[in-house]
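Worked example 2:
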Amino acid sequence: MDLDVEAVQLNTAIKHSNPVVVDLLSQRGRAIFFPRLGMMSQTTQALTKKINATIGTAYEEDGSPIALREISKRIIAPAKDVFPYAPVNGRERLRQLWLEEMKRKNPTLSAPTTVPAVTAGITHGLGIATYLFGEPGDSILLFDYFWGNYHLIFEHPYGVQLDQINTFGKDNGLDLAALDKKLNSEKKGKKILLLNFPNNPLGYTPTNQEAKHILSIIKKSADNGNKLVVICDDAYFGLVYKKGVYSESLFSTLAGLHENVIAVKVDGATKEEYFWGLRVGFITIAFKGMTKEAADALEFKIKGVIRGGVSNCCHPTQTILEMALQSKTHAREKKQKYSLLKKRFDTVEKVLQTKKYKDYFEPMPHNSGYFMCLRPKNGLDAEAVRQQLLKNYNTGVVSMCGLIRIAYASVPLKTIPVLFENIYLACKDLKIT
């Protein structure tokens, strides 16, 4: 593939900082760029001019964006922060605010990073990461309990296969021996690792010791000459409910861990800010010794992917999030919502102590996030239990991987005991029949 001169310039800037990054880029990743001399750049140059006939946005005679009253009357933000197109990589103030929040939440993050680019949700961010680093035939290593949408994100559009390893060992902790074997005992070369904590569907985050061990395994692999892309799917970041559980993103240490490790953080307002349908995510990249020039080049590549896909992300939702992050009540409101979810988690823990339940199901390890899973016992089938709950108990759960996934984050406190009692009764019905 012949590369555009602008793509070559970006690759050169990255290579000067760390040639491993260019080696890890996919063919798409090496070829992508954001045109510095294209229409968007010409539009930017004209923004301060008295007459600006560059962009496809219609304006009133007074210079304000044209907007239908039935739409504008329902939006409290200024029209200029809602109706025009947002910058391709997101509102600059929002990006800086998210970076500040990231550093506040992850105090050990000291390595340089790109400025987070706005994505149309976390799914979009994961797709961008794969566009940049995933080739057809590559494998993404991940634990075998994972979000089912990964198949659609990674495999179908990009031809990247999911290489699954055992999630839990005999002690109900993460099977880090399996991770070590994959990263250090198999063929050397390019490796892509996906870490999703808190995990969907399990609601599990590594303990402090497990997190330390994961990082040491990755460093060992890099020391052995492997070149690694580590993608942190941090969709449920911050929702940790037990002591001794790692409270930062692994990205914090991965960002400066080793010259052979490229860290990609995909996160967003979806769960962290309870912003689900408003679809604002972020993607951030880091590696040890990253220069400002390399960071800028990677940001231009991300910008190119966004421009070639969704063009730019939703402007009003970015504005809403930006306003919320700067609100004086933001921290207090976040604390209140966390407290509610923590109470639901604690209620689940209490309900699971009910002795009679142990005859029919057992909880999988969990300590964080929105979910927990039950493993049916004594030959019970998770899908059969789900169907029984729908048919006779007016209750919906998810069956997957032989487990019953419960999204307790969506269930009122007073209903949680009823939910588990219904699961018990459905299991009992099936066992009797």
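The radius of gyration is 24 Å. The longest helix spans residues 330-351.
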